[in-house]
Specification:
single chain, alpha/beta, Rossmann fold, six-stranded parallel sheet, two-stranded antiparallel sheet, globular
Length: 279
């Protein structure tokens, strides 16, 4: 890698449950064309491709939030400077933890899984999580969604055709443990879903919500925003009307990606040697 590319701000993309990291490819192309370097590593246990992950689902058994966080923290430790982290769904929860723990210069959490302290629990969220939470044995094993379940949790704002296409292209088995950990976070003293929302020693954070999201309904993300109310660090919020949980990979993904690019630009990131920090 050239010295010039080393100085470009680095973005680390983090996927959520049931979606392979390769679904970020269009985002990576766009952001690299915009002057960033990017990476989108999978969770521990993910295969290199969608098909490989589907063929070896057992590699994800019992993988929880703490293991996922350690995995990304270790990757960041090998980078020349802390990156900007952008995560979707459970990746959005992980992005918030990495930012609060000093592993990132800025964070973007798109339709993020609720952190500890969120009490809002809409029916659609319960229904979207039922394929896993409906069976306690799923806590330590990997679960795949059916096309119908994906349609409800991800593709409800899409046509049936587009939802089915995304399901075939990007879905992978997902570990049940993160959902159980998240569901019990408010009753667990040292929950791995806890995030220090009061710290003022972090970089800026952007929370994004789709108003039609079934998996992480809009009121849930709004409550996350309120939990950051005591922090003096920048916490912004943006809403996308009519969009569901698929907003990072459906035909409207570019609207979200462009909005984040504009937000990053507004934070006046500047290059300082090999790192990018908020001015």
């Amino acid at each position: 890698m050239s010295e010039a590319s080393d100085r470009r701000p680095q973005i680390l993309f983090i996927h959520g449950l049931w979606i392979h990291s390769s679904a970020w490819r269009d985002w990576q192309d766009l952001y690299e064309a915009s002057g960033y370097t990017t990476s989108a590593p999978g969770w521990p246990g993910d295969g290199d491709t969608v098909l490989d992950t589907r063929d070896h689902p057992g590699a994800l058994d019992d993988v929880g939030i703490e293991a996922i966080c350690r995995h990304y923290a270790a990757l960041i430790d090998q980078m020349p400077a802390n990156p900007i982290v952008i995560g979707h769904s459970f990746g959005g929860l992980i992005a918030q933890k990495l930012l609060a723990d000093g592993y990132a210069t800025a964070g973007v959490a798109i339709d993020p899984a609720p952190i500890k302290g969120v009490k809002t629990l809409p029916f659609s969220q319960l229904r979207a999580g039922f394929p896993v939470l409906g069976n306690p044995k799923n806590k330590r094993r990997t679960v795949s969604l059916t096309a119908k379940q994906f349609r409800y949790g991800f593709g409800n704002a899409l046509t049936q055709e587009e939802s089915d296409q995304l399901y075939r292209a990007w879905t992978i088995p997902g570990p049940g443990r993160p959902l159980f950990e998240d569901a019990t976070a408010n009753f667990t003293r040292n929950s791995p879903a806890a995030v220090d929302t009061r710290t003022s020693e972090r970089g800026p954070l952007l929370l994004i919500s789709g108003t039609e999201d079934h998996t992480v309904p809009n009121p849930v993300t709004q409550e996350v925003l309120r939990l950051y109310g005591d922090s003096r660090s920048i916490t912004d919020y943006q809403e996308f009307a009519g969009r569901g949980h698929s907003l990072t990979m459906d035909s409207g993904w570019r609207d979200v990606a462009d909005a984040i690019l504009a937000w990053l630009s507004s934070q006046q990131f500047r290059e300082t040697g090999a790192s990018a920090t908020a001015a």
